[in-house]
Amino acid sequence: KAGVTQTPRYLIKTRGQQVTLSCSPISGHRSVSWYQQTPGQGLQFLFEYFSETQRNKGNFPGRFSGRQFSNSRSEMNVSTLELGDSALYLCASSRTSGDPGDTQYFGPGTRLTVL
Amino acid sequence: AQSVTQPDIHITVSEGASLELRCNYSYGATPYLFWYVQSPGQGLQLLLKYFSGDTLVQGIKGFEAEFKRSQSSFNLRKPSVHWSDAAEYFCAVGLSLTGGGNKLTFGTGTQLKVEL
If you average pLDDT over residues A20-43, what whole number do you get? Predict the structure, then answer.
């Protein structure tokens, strides 16, 4: 079974631009979560999508948004990029939502660099 | 608030030596606990998880972890470390969220270096 895939793997953008990252979950998984990883803040929860609905959002500004499609694929968007948005963005998929014991499987991440 | 603490930022062990990575959690109920490993430039790979039953859980790559409620700990162990185990290790707790959904809260990670 194919794992979680994320595209692109690397991105370089300049301040003020916007960016869209894509995540394809494991087949049969309906929940997709996004995390931001930085050296200073570590791994932080961005949001979770399930059945095309955002279930929860972490403590991030409104510039961070996402969506989920009917095939469970998800995209996240960051508008008006800031230098501090440089990070590894990780997507994770799980079978369901609301079960904290349901394993989240992670993709390889998208490395975003903002210049 | 729920939190996860990994007291050791860096650990260096010799190949073949035993390993123990510490993890402490703060959570009111019985937690759902996970250990993930991250190799450079990669995503997170699940090593093992615990949420009930036997307090000693076995994972992949020869790792095991022991849940100790009295100490609020979930330490990761391996009897004999291989050079390929060099990576960053994250302890996490799974949380249900108000209004539905769930998320993982991670510790700050422990970077493992293996000396040959």
Answer: 96
